[in-house]
Specification:
- This protein has about 100 residues and is mainly alpha-helical.
- It is about 85% helix and about 0% strand.
- The chain is built from 3 helices and no strands.
- Helix 1 packs antiparallel against helix 3.
- The longest helix is centred in the N-terminal third of the chain and has 41 residues.
């Protein structure tokens, strides 16, 4: 250690990289699962339309737009919360590093 200053611990870099990687993977997975759920809902509605069932049964099952309309905003909020947690973790870990 010939240079003075603050040495950022490699654990900080590793945890931040892991959080960001997991966050990106989770975000992609959330949006992909949202689209899959919407496709599944539409397939179920199509199958129910082929059967001779009362109309009120079709009104119970959501359309693909209803599923996407609820899951996409939820996924966006979840991604925003993941990003906030990653950003909030940095001062806490740096504070811990500076204490020791």
């Amino acid at each position: 250690f010939n240079e003075e200053g603050i040495w950022i611990n490699t654990r900080l870099w590793a945890t931040q990289f892991a959080q960001i990687t997991l966050g990106v993977f989770s975000a992609v997975l959330l949006f992909w699962l949202s689209v899959q759920a919407a496709d599944s809902a539409e397939n179920v509605r199509d199958d129910l339309e082929d059967d001779d069932l009362p109309d009120w049964i079709l009104e119970i099952f959501p359309t693909s737009w209803m599923v996407l309309g609820s899951l996409i905003p939820a996924s966006i909020v979840a991604c925003a919360v993941m990003a906030i947690y990653c950003v909030l973790y940095i001062p806490s870990s740096i504070s811990t590093i500076l204490k020791y």
